[in-house]
Amino acid sequence: MKHIAIFASGAGSNAQKIIDYFSNHKSINVALIVSNNPSAGVLSIAQKHYIPTAIINKKTITNELETLDILARNNIDLIVLAGFMIQIPAYLSNKYEQKILNIHPALLPKYGGKGMYGHHVHEAVFQNKEKESGITIHFVNEHYDEGQIIFQKSVDITQCKNPLEIAQEVLKLEHENYAKVIEKELM
């Protein structure tokens, strides 16, 4: 059995889709939910599905021994970032080299880097009058959004009237594709 840890900071819609996708999987399960936010909705999702949780905040994540111990105790094979709002430190990306995935709400390398997340991305895409946006799933290294790209999918946004509508179209792609890409990486 391969064990996934989902790192998330917010409501957890991607985490929910991933949990649902792997709920009866023969060889992959979500073994741990990690958040830096003790009031994040993703923790309630974990509780509802009886998945162990851990709080790893900015201070904890700098403690290499503590963080790696939490992951080791849960036999984590793959870390999946789903809106985790803390940069992954080099020791973690080195220990889990090509075993940490992130989903970015744009077609990298455009609209990536520090500060480019969530609504910031969609606002920039809208302001620049892009005709398409999409998702990029990539391996994580110590630099924001610079890891090897393993999957991209685009969506036409010419009919979108504002950044919120772009966000809704991109979120559909995230929910349709992230778990499938995770599965492919673990098989």
Q: Can you give a write-up of this model?
A:
By secondary structure, the protein is of the alpha/beta class. The protein has one domain (2-186): Rossmann fold (3-Layer(aba) Sandwich). Helix content is 39%, strand content 22%. It is built from 7 helices and 7 strands; from the N terminus they run βαβαβααβαβαββα. The radius of gyration is 16 Å and the shape is globular.
List the helices and strands and how they pair.
Blueprint (H helix, E strand, L loop, with lengths): L1 E6 L5 H10 L5 E8 L5 H8 L4 E3 L2 H4 L2 H10 L4 E4 L8 H6 L4 E5 L13 H10 L4 E8 L9 E8 L6 H24 L1
Parallel strand pairs: 1-2, 1-4, 2-3, 4-5
Antiparallel strand pairs: 5-6, 6-7
Helix pairs in contact: 1-7, 6-7
How large, in whole angstroms, is the Cα Rg?
16 Å
How many discrete domains? 1
Spans where pLDDT lies below 50 across 5 or more residues: none
Alpha carbon gap, first and last residue: 11 Å
Strand order in the largest sheet = 3-2-1-4-5-6-7
Question: Which of globular, elongated, flat, extended, rod-shaped describes the shape?
Answer: globular
Q: Name the CATH superfamily assignment.
A: Formyl transferase, N-terminal domain
Largest sheet: 7 strands, mixed
Question: What name does CATH use for the topology?
Answer: Rossmann fold
User: What CATH architecture would you give?
Assistant: 3-Layer(aba) Sandwich
Mean pLDDT over the full residue set = 97
Per DSSP E runs of 2 or more residues, the count of β-strands stands at 7
* CATH class (first level) name: Alpha Beta
The assigned structural class equals alpha/beta
Helical residues, percent: 25-40%
Q: Kindly estimate the percentage of residues that lie in beta strands according to DSSP.
A: 15-25%
Give the count of helical stretches. Answer: 7
SSE succession: EHEHEHHEHEHEEH
